[in-house]
Write a structure and sequence with these properties.
By secondary structure, the chain is of the alpha+beta class. A hairpin with a 6-residue loop joins strand 6 and strand 7. The protein is globular.
């Protein structure tokens, strides 16, 4: 992970600032759908019947494969900004199957809270994605023309700057048995 110097930080902060605003102000970004493990929005009853606390175990690899496709399509680089710390207590992290080595990484990652990071190693990116998928620390993920917000219940809102970007992420999702709905 690389924390940006002032020049890079200003460029990338401006580039992705719109995503931080409320939906009515996201001028350059178009809501493109939700990256999801389900093909449609669940009803309240359907959602109540699912144990989301363990669902990530079944689908986390698909999420990682999706992001790997994005990462590779962007020449091995992706930008990440943590946005919401949900729970980093030792007992919570144990329930979410994080190891001591993972906890050390989480502590390091939290030192960069709310700072835009450039991630050039997929192993680091995978750990950050796991934090969002397991609802520990939610992050936003950016490439030049696509932004994906970490969110609850393995449902990540996606924003694109072009129809071509939307088509590409929809194809990537389909290839790993996920959906943009």
């Amino acid at each position: 992970m690389e924390v940006f110097n002032n020049h890079k930080q200003n460029y990338n902060s401006n580039l992705h600032h719109e995503l931080e605003l409320d939906n009515s102000q996201k001028a350059e970004w178009t809501f493109s759908g939700i990256l999801d493990i389900f093909p449609k929005q669940l009803t309240v009853l359907e959602a109540q019947e699912i144990d989301f606390s363990i669902l990530y175990k079944e689908h986390e690899n698909q999420i990682l494969l999706f992001f790997q496709k994005i990462y590779e399509s962007n020449n091995g680089c992706i930008y990440v900004k943590s946005t919401t710390i949900i729970n980093t207590s030792d007992s919570y992290l144990q329930r979410k199957d994080f190891s001591k080595n993972d906890i050390d990484f989480i502590e390091k990652f939290l030192c960069y809270e709310n700072r835009l990071l450039q991630v050039n190693h997929f192993e680091e990116l995978a750990r950050i994605i796991n934090l969002s998928a397991r609802e520990v620390v939610l992050s936003n993920f950016y490439i030049e023309d696509t932004a994906i917000q970490g969110n609850f219940d393995l449902s990540f809102p996606a924003y694109c700057r072009s129809e071509q970007s939307k088509i590409r992420i929809t194809e990537y999702a389909s290839e790993v048995n996920l959906y943009i709905r």
